[in-house]
Task: inverse folding
């Protein structure tokens, strides 16, 4: 089973895109629910992203990639 | 040099200590130790401060060396944006609070208004005209929520959001850096020197910035600052995000 990690839909108004500024764990690493795994930036705000469940992280969007609201940036395989 | 979150007075700190104080402030919210906090500090030294992702830019090591030789060592901050000079001519104010996130709330915009609206009101009360929030094209680290005077950037703003431990609540840190002294030309020159060294063709314009000393030549910033901090504490919450009831008069709106 896989769980998507998405950019929050309600973090900001309008259609401004954000960018993944850092992955704090490697692709394929095992993460625990609540682990801080990535940071994204939009509107000069850094937003920390946590693992929603425990499992193996599969990164879908690389550092410096532009992301829109709701975009899947990674999945966690449980 | 010690830093404190127990006082709302302006603290004189090194850039490194000031940035660490802001991180401590945010972390105190995340750990559930407090629900609201505010710090104000002004550097005793100089640095060009930027998010850590700039470390990946080609030419960064050379730029770091060159800026350090000019007396502007590079340091990293936790909020977003692009390079900003920090010096004794800058006053920083950071507020952090715990928020209950609603499904329809526009959090970032709310955070910028929570910091910027009282700042604008403070300036207006001091007699400054044409104050608002907005972008300042040509300014370094431009954003949509600078505090502007006549369209020129006085205060740059940025945020960091982090989840409160063991909770669905979020902790928000909103930061403002206000140029109170020196000339815009002097600070813009530092950022442009960085741009040149990393090979980025973008250059910034001093005319897009303004210092408080230009708008209010007779003002003693340190004497006027407590009124700004009081306004930031007293401002009621609005715009959809529900702050969590806590210290210092924070109440559910």
Result:
């Amino acid at each position: 089973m896989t769980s998507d990690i998405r950019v929050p839909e309600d973090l900001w108004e309008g259609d401004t895109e954000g960018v993944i500024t850092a992955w704090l764990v490697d692709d394929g690493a095992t993460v625990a629910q609540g682990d801080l795994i990535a940071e994204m930036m939009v509107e000069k705000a850094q937003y920390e992203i946590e693992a929603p469940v425990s499992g193996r992280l599969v990164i879908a969007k690389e550092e410096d990639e532009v992301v829109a609201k709701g975009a899947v940036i990674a999945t966690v395989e449980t | 040099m010690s830093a404190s979150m127990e006082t709302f007075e302006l603290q004189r700190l090194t850039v490194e200590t000031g940035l660490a104080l802001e991180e401590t402030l945010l972390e105190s919210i995340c750990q559930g130790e407090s629900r609201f906090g505010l710090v104000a500090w002004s550097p005793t030294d100089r640095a060009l401060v930027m998010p850590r992702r700039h470390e990946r830019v080609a030419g960064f090591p050379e730029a770091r060396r060159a800026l350090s030789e000019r007396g502007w060592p590079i340091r990293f901050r936790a909020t977003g944006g692009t390079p900003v000079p920090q010096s004794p001519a800058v006053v920083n104010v950071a507020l952090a609070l715990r928020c209950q996130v609603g499904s329809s709330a526009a959090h970032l915009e709310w955070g910028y208004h929570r910091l910027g609206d009282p700042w604008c009101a403070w300036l207006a009360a001091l007699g400054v005209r044409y104050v608002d929030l907005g972008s300042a094209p040509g300014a370094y680290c431009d954003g949509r929520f600078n505090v502007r005077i006549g369209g020129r950037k006085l205060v740059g703003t940025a945020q960091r959001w982090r989840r409160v431990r063991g909770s669905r609540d979020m902790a928000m840190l909103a930061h403002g850096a206000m140029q109170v002294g020196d000339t815009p030309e002097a600070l813009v020159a530092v950022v442009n020197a960085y741009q040149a060294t990393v090979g980025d063709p973008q250059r910034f314009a001093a005319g897009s910035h303004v210092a408080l000393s230009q708008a209010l030549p007779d003002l003693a910033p340190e004497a006027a600052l407590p009124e700004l901090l009081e306004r930031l504490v007293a401002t009621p919450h609005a715009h959809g995000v529900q702050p969590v009831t806590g210290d210092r008069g924070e109440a559910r709106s």
User: Anything to note?
Assistant: Chain A has a mean pLDDT of 93. Chain A is about 0% helix and 50% strand.
